[in-house]
C-alpha cells in the first residue's frame, strides 16, 4: 500500500469556503490524523475501546441533559426541506428561499453526548466502563478564528462511567497523559479552571461551577484551550438511569482533546505545518512516555 502524499497544495495553506469552515491541505490533514492517533494513547493506556458515536442527537435526549438550559446558543439544528419545496428545488429555485422543517435532531456539540445517551438504562458495574471516540462536533459561535474557533471540528474524548473514586482516578490519569503528550510534542501548556460559555452566567449551573469547578482546561501560550478534564459528578448517571452496580447512579468523567486546536498549537510552537509534522513523527517514534 502506498503512503499518502503530504505535499502542500500548489497555492498552499488552508482553504476556507466560509466563516468557521476550513478545508485542510494534505500537510495539515496528516498533522491532524497523526495527532489524533497519538492522543488515542490515553485510550490504550486506560483500556478504553474505540467506538463511533451517532451523527445526530435527539432534541428530547439533549433536553433531559439540560443542554438547552445551559447552551441554547450553541446548538446547530438539522432540518429537511418541506415536501412542497421539492418541486421548486428540482426546478432550480434558490434553496435559501424555501422552507425547512425541523427533524427533532441537532448536530453533536460534544462527542460524549451521543455515547452517554446510548448507555441509558445500563448497569456498567462497579468496575466501570471506559469508551473512546473521535467525533465531528458543531457549535454556533459569535465569531470564528482559523483553527482556534471553528463551526465544525473534531473532538477526541475518553469517557469513564462508574464509581466516584474511579472518576477521580480517570481524570488524574488523563491530566498526566496530557502533560506527557504535550512534553513529547514540545508544547508548553498552562492549566486553569474553565470558563464555559453558559448562556445565563447567573444561572444555577454556572454558579455551581464557580463554587465547585468541574472542568479544567490546558491552554497553549496564546490562550487557546486544546484539552480539558471534565468531572460530571453523577449528573448523567441520574438523568439517564446509568448505574454502577451497588454504588447507585454512575459517576462519569471525560478527558477531551480539540484536535484542530492541537494542530494550531503545534504550528504556533514549531513555526510551520511541515516542522510541526516532523516533530510529531519524532514523538510517535519515541512514544508519549519517551
Automatic annotation (TrEMBL):
Signal peptide (UniProt feature, chain positions): none
Domain of life of the native organism: Bacteria
Residue span, Aminoacyl-transfer RNA synthetases class-II family profile domain: 42-282
Protein name: Aminoacyl-transfer RNA synthetases class-II family profile domain-containing protein
